[in-house]
UniProtKB/TrEMBL annotation, chain A:
Pathway: Cofactor biosynthesis; ubiquinone biosynthesis. It comes from Mustela putorius furo. This is Ubiquinone biosynthesis O-methyltransferase, mitochondrial. One of its GO terms (molecular function) is metal ion binding. The lineage of its organism: Eukaryota, Metazoa, Chordata, Craniata, Vertebrata. Coiled coil: none annotated. GO terms for biological process: methylation. Belongs to the class I-like SAM-binding methyltransferase superfamily. UbiG/COQ3 family.
UniProtKB/TrEMBL annotation, chain B:
Belongs to the UbiH/COQ6 family. Keywords: Cell projection, FAD, Flavoprotein, Golgi apparatus, Membrane, Mitochondrion, Mitochondrion inner membrane, Monooxygenase, Oxidoreductase, Transit peptide, Ubiquinone, Ubiquinone biosynthesis. One of its GO terms (cellular component) is Golgi apparatus. InterPro entries: FAD-bd, FAD/NAD-bd_sf, Ubi_Hdrlase_CS, UbiH/COQ6, UbiH/COQ6_monooxygenase, UbQ_mOase_COQ6. Residues 352-426 form the FAD-binding domain. This is Ubiquinone biosynthesis monooxygenase COQ6, mitochondrial. NCBIfam families: COQ6 (TIGR01989), Ubi-OHases (TIGR01988). FAD-dependent monooxygenase required for two non-consecutive steps during ubiquinone biosynthesis. Required for the C5-ring hydroxylation during ubiquinone biosynthesis by catalyzing the hydroxylation of 4-hydroxy-3-(all-trans-decaprenyl)benzoic acid to 3,4-dihydroxy-5-(all-trans-decaprenyl)benzoic acid. Also acts downstream of COQ4, for the C1-hydroxylation during ubiquinone biosynthesis by catalyzing the hydroxylation of 2-methoxy-6-(all-trans-decaprenyl)phenol to 2-methoxy-6-(all-trans-decaprenyl)benzene-1,4-diol. Component of a multi-subunit COQ enzyme complex, composed of at least COQ3, COQ4, COQ5, COQ6, COQ7 and COQ9. Interacts with COQ8B and COQ7. HAMAP family: COQ6_monooxygenase. Its cofactor is FAD. Its EC number is 1.14.15.45, 1.14.15.46. It is an enzyme of class 1 (oxidoreductase).
Length: 338, 469
């Protein structure tokens, strides 16, 4: 089994939510952040595997972390809780996906505009984005490497018979399903994921492979700018303590220019890049001309070409590491498991 | 009534909901065999039925399941009865727009309604009056019998029976509210237990069950309410002679406002708010005496005093001096000849306002959220306004694939409507109190106030615009 490590567990910009909510939630909020701090610091080991580059352990998921995730797992669906900004981001990303997909069809069923479409939600977490897409009629497969997230997502959708039929969750990574799902999806959604991916090039290639010709790739992520460093790292993590230290690595943020060049060089033509801004006081996101913090991108698979690098192969040595345009990251970490 | 609202166990949940203690009763792990509806509207009155109809006809609700619960039996109509019903409503242009958005207005037009173009409101204690009309003499509003509106709504409801189910003679006896977020094995939906023991689940419960709302009480939502020491008497009156009858008349007597609303060329509807004793007297007295009382209420100047008359004419001449073109002579309403037998009914009046209109998976609309004095003719219009706003928010949420019971769009509806309704409720209450007295200073104040408002056309236009929404 091969995989690359990424996680959608932490969102990019997590300032404090509405003050009135804060006062009501102060006790629970602090408690949950104590838990978040504890488990996220342990998550660091899980997510930055080069610390175990020369380790002998083949396990990728730390069993002690699973336990700490149980405490957080139910927080996914608390709309006024830790993940509130991700919930309110749906107001931007669902219409973004829906409208761009509707442009590709001539007619759609009222009430189920996305029916007939197959969508892959990579790094789905608790299913915050998967469920709205399911409600709009699409058949969605949500994948996430963290078991607990998948369990939460499964549990949450189990109460709604309509969603149970339309959504399928799997605890795995993108590479693991590339072969069986090659060219089957009308859309792939990678929201708040690529800033945690180690090898963006491979990730994009896998997305390319699972997409049908003419299929869409939707990405939302954080830009790599001084502003995102100041607000996203310094302010959130170090000053306000809203996001635990070490959650984000500024070096892994991706600028839209870099993303565009990777997309274009892998056969995906970029149609839209739009900035998103979060207002911490109102708790709402807004579209913006400014992409210096968060942004969304829409690309379409438009070239039939030989897939440049098939996933799942074994590579050894450091030659591949030099390939990487990212200067700091040590490159793709792949471990073969029998 | 109490048994209807009985819940088996009460337990205050922690303030996690952020909206005060959420009274909850037994939570079970989910009888998944219960039908799961997307929206349940509890209460099949004018506002509840309009809500179910609007959702049923909304394009983004095409694949959703909606249920309307009505405690009463299904009304079967053969054809339009000859006699007019004594319960009528003044429908504002905004409400008419809502009703036509799902095709109910066409049915009303095919049955009967009366448009009015002017409204004269005047005081019994002075000469002051205010005349409302639209510049282009557009319809200011429509007087429609409640039965006609219900019939139109029911017809449109039947047209979408594949999406909207109606359960008659169904009364909810218990509600179970969900936790704010999913906990292991607890159902995230609202569970409703009906009188016959059956249960259902829903993603969103809309309470439209009137001012004694069971839904509101079961949810533990605080309600600010008081009863006015007044009852309203309604009746259908025959006019002495046929007239164009497109004017709505309202006179503020010290005991309460009396209003004459046009129904046809020869018929008008009476709404007279007065003290409980007087109301009982009016309903009990014989028809001739009743007609005389009504006529003298509109025509008699017994309450005028010299002081107020002098003060009033002083301001009036000042206004005439400043705006010589505007002439507002007091017109007299048509005189009444007969009253329809058995059409006199009375009902008590009060004010009510729910502190919160929404909770997770719950929304209140219509009289369940607010109850108002009929003097401004706004009660059902506020309810239809609630329907408009909530349908707009729910439609957008459905198109975004959102969970319908999510607070994010429900609070949008609440803010929207509380702003409008609170202002209107406060204004109506203020007017009621201001006009309930004979004390000279207040009479002077309101006389001058009314005359001044009448003179300032932009202000009148604002008032009309606000009330027409």
């Amino acid at each position: 089994m091969s995989f690359s490590i990424y996680s959608e567990n932490q969102f990019s910009w997590t300032p404090q939510t509405n003050p009135w909510v804060f006062s009501e939630y102060s006790m629970m909020w602090f408690k949950s952040y104590r838990i978040t701090f504890a488990c996220l610091s342990r998550m660091k080991i899980y997510r930055y595997p080069w610390t175990r580059l020369y380790g002998t352990s083949q396990t990728t998921v730390d069993s002690s972390e699973i336990k700490t995730f149980v405490a957080l797992a139910h927080r996914w669906w608390d709309e006024q809780g830790v993940y509130a900004p991700l919930h309110s981001m749906n107001d931007l990303r669902v219409p973004f996906i829906r409208d761009n997909l509707l442009k590709t069809v001539a007619h759609h069923q009222p009430g189920k505009p996305l029916s007939g479409m197959k969508i892959l939600d990579v790094g789905c977490g608790g299913g915050l984005l998967t469920e709205p897409l399911g409600r709009l009629g699409a058949s969605v497969i949500g994948i996430d490497p963290v078991d607990e997230n998948i369990k939460t997502a499964q549990h949450h959708k189990s109460f709604d018979p309509v969603l149970e039929k339309r959504i399928e969750y799997r605890a795995c990574s993108l590479e693991e399903i590339v072969e069986e799902t090659a060219e089957t999806f009308d859309a792939v959604v990678a929201s708040e994921v690529i800033e945690h991916v180690i090898d963006l090039e491979t990730f994009i290639q896998c997305c390319y492979q699972v997409l049908k010709f003419g299929g869409s790739l939707f990405i939302t992520t954080v830009n790599k700018t001084q502003l995102s460093y100041a607000l996203g790292i310094v302010f959130s993590e170090q000053i306000a303590g809203i996001v635990p230290k070490g959650t984000h690595t500024w070096e892994k943020f991706v600028s839209p220019e870099k993303l565009e060049s990777i997309l274009e060089s892998n056969g995906l033509s970029v149609h839209t890049v739009a900035g998103m801004l979060y207002n911490p006081f109102s708790g709402y996101w807004h579209w913006s001309e400014n992409t210096s913090l968060n942004y969304a991108a829409h690309a379409v698979k438009s070239m039939r070409q030989e897939p440049p690098v098939p996933a799942g192969f074994v590579f050894t040595g450091k030659t591949e590491e030099l390939h990487d345009k990212d200067s700091i990251n040590p490159g793709v970490q792949e471990e073969l498991k029998k | 009534m109490a048994a209807r609202l009985a819940v088996s166990r009460w337990r205050a949940a922690p303030a996690a909901a952020g909206r005060g203690p959420l009274l909850s009763c037994r939570r079970w792990s989910g009888a998944k065999a219960d039908t799961l509806y997307d929206v349940v509207v509890s209460g099949g009155g004018l506002v509840g039925t309009a809500m179910a109809c609007a959702l049923g006809h909304d394009i983004h609700f095409s694949d959703k399941k909606i249920l309307l619960l009505e405690a009463g039996p299904k009304k079967v109509w053969e054809k339009l009865p000859e006699t007019y019903s004594n319960r009528v409503s003044s429908i504002s242009p905004g409400s008419a727009t809502l009703l036509s958005s799902f095709g109910a207005w066409d049915h009303i037009c095919n049955m009967r309604y009366r448009a009015f173009r002017r409204m004269q409101v005047w005081d019994a204690c002075s000469e002051a009056l205010i005349m409302f009309d639209k510049d282009n003499l557009d319809d200011m509003g429509y007087i429609v019998e409640n039965d006609v509106i219900m019939r139109a709504l029911t017809k449109q409801l039947e047209a979408v029976s594949d999406r909207v189910t109606v359960l008659y003679r169904s009364r909810a006896v218990g509600y179970t509210w969900p936790y704010p977020f999913t906990m292991a094995d607890s159902s995230p939906w609202v569970h409703i237990t009906l009188g016959d023991g059956s249960t259902l689940q829903t993603k969103l419960l809309i309470g439209a069950d009137g001012h004694n709302s069971g839904v509101r009480q079961a949810a533990g939502i605080q309600n600010v309410s008081w009863s006015y020491d007044q009852s309203a008497v309604v009746a259908t009156l025959h006019l002495s002679e046929a007239t164009e009858n497109n004017v709505a008349w309202q006179r503020f007597l010290p005991s309460g406002p009396i209003a004459l609303l046009p129904l046809s060329d020869t018929l008008s509807s009476l709404v007279w708010s007065t003290s409980h004793e007087h109301a009982a007297e009016l309903v009990g007295m014989d028809e001739e005496k009743f007609v005389d009382t009504v006529n003298s209420a509109f025509w008699s100047d017994a309450n005028h005093t010299d002081l107020i008359d002098a003060a009033g004419s002083l301001l009036q001449s000042a206004v005439a001096f400043l705006k010589p073109t505007k002439v507002s002579a007091r017109q007299m309403p048509p005189s009444v000849a007969r009253v329809d037998a058995k059409s006199r009914v009375l009902f008590p009046l009060g004010l009510g306002h729910a502190a919160e209109y929404v909770r997770p998976r719950l929304a209140l609309i219509g009289d369940a959220a607010h109850r108002v004095h009929p003097l401004a003719g706004q009660g059902v219009n506020m309810g239809f306004g609630d329907v408009s706003s909530l349908v707009r928010h729910l439609s957008a949420a459905a198109f975004n694939g959102k969970d319908l019971g999510s607070m994010s769009h429900l609070t949008g509806y609440e803010t929207d409507r509380q702003r409008h309704n609170t202002a209107l409720l406060a204004a109506t209450d203020l007017l009621k109190r201001l006009y309930s007295t004979r004390a000279a200073p207040l009479v002077l104040l309101r006389t001058w106030g009314l005359q001044a408002t009448n003179a300032v056309s932009p202000l009148k236009e604002q008032i009309i615009a606000f009330a027409s929404k």
